[in-house]
Structures are given as C-alpha cells and as structure tokens.
User: Fold this.
Amino acid sequence: MTLLTRRHILQGAGVLTLAGAGFGTYACAVEPGFRLDVTTYSLTPPHWTPGLQVKAALVADIHACEPLMSAARIRRIAEITNSLDPDIIFLLGDFNAGHRFVTGPVYPAQWAEALSVLRAPLGIYAILGNHDWWHGALPRMRSDDGESVRRALRHADFKVLENEAVSVVKGNQSFWVAGLGDQLAYPAGSRRFEGFDDLDGTLAQASDGAPILLLAHEPFVFHRVPDRVSLTLCGHTHGGQINLPIVTELFTEQEFGMTQVYGHIVQHRRHMIISAGLGTSIAPVRLFRPPEIVLLTIGSETAVA
Assistant:
C-alpha cells in the first residue's frame, strides 16, 4: 500500500476544492440561469369530456429579478412557450422575486411586457402566488397585496382569476378554468398564514357538468379538492428546487408538509400536476431540478390511472 504523503493530501484537497467550486457554479449559475426544460404530460383525467383535447402550457414561479431571471430571459421563455403551439396558457403565480440575493429588481411592468408576446387561441389565464402578496418586486419592498401584479397582468391582456371560474369553449365543447386565490396571502406570524382562497365559492361558479381545471398556486389545497375537478395545476414548490435523495424528501416534508412536491400526482383518482417552475426562492440555487415549461395534453388516449 502506498503511504499518503503531504503532497498527495494537498493534491486531493485541491481536486475536491475544484470539484466543489464547479458543482457550486453549476447549482448557483448554470442550472438556474441557463437551463430550460420542456416537460410533457399526456393524460385523460376523470370526468373529462370524450373527444375534447386541450394542449395547455404551464408557466410557474418566474420570480423575476436580475441577473438570473431578467426581462430578456423571460421574453425568451415566452417565445419558447409560443413555439409549443398551446391552445391555452396558464400562469401559475409568483412573478415577484423570491429571495434577496439579486443585483436588481425586474418590476411588474417589465416582466409583463416580456410576457405580453404570449399567444394562445383559448386565452392566457393567471393566478397570483404568495410572493406576489407578501412584498413588492423584491422581498425588501413594501407589499401592495398583489395589486401591481394584477395591474401588470391585465395590461398584458391576460385574464386574472382569483376565486373565479370561467367557461372556455373549444369547438363545440366547453370546460371550466377555475383560479383559486392564494392560500398564503396574509402572513400571520410564526410561519402562520391566512389565505385569500375560497375553494367552495370558486367551484360553485362552474354551473354545469363540464369538466373543471383548477389553478392553485400552492398544492396544499389538493386534499380538499372534490372529485368533480378533473385536474389541479400548481406551482410553488419548485419541485423541491434541490433534488437529492433523502435530503430533499426530508426538506419538503418539513417545508411543505408533503413528500410529493413535483410531477403528476394521483390520490384516490384525483389528479394534480406540480410544475418545478422557472425561478428560485430562498436562495438562487437549483440542483437536478432545472427550470421548466410544462406542456400538458389533456384528453389523450392515455388510460385514466
């Protein structure tokens, strides 16, 4: 056996330092700042109308800020979304930045102008997220309870849904898009929050038997969603943002009270899709959970789980 010398130890330490630096660069710059996946799902959820096929693009958790989520990058994301040729686009909240590690803000008027190129024949529908309620463009900025976000979205000609359901028609068949108010809108101290959400009131507006797509920024509501909702679409969790065995599951259980925080989730024949989103929260880091646009085909020939 060869004895370790001081030179060997120093060489090994140097390799580990370089590897750690490279790993950190990837997690703090490359993955959150340059990667973008298009994640596809195809399913026919319960209570969906036979023969009705809708292709939806999901854009979640932009967390606009410099340098990682600039207005220019948001414009590129919007253009890529358009290239997917969706019938309808859902913006699932958290447009404001999610952490203080920034070089500057991207204000609502700026990110909304970048998104204004989005096009879909059945429309573009948006809900607000917790960061849109809690503060301004950056966490240190004063909250206006989401009013600047609403104003920017409406100026871009997007339909803002807060505890509201609207009927959408494709061909001669209809479905409902129901947007829930944010469930963490009002901080109430010591990690407690009061919501602006009204699930029962929102679903009561779906006045016929057409299928319902529910937009909810946080997935916490899922256990209360009734069977008549075909599919719940969420963001908020960033898919854990850092995706490591055991560690991520422990974190998500503590942070979100649930271990399944990403992807297509089925519970008792109720279906939910959670997007990993685009930006970052708490810290500007992503690891093995790259930013994504979700392209969802609803009404395929895939069997219902």
User: Anything to note?
Assistant: Residues 184 and 195 are 5 Å apart (CA to CA). The chain has two domains: 1-34, 36-298.
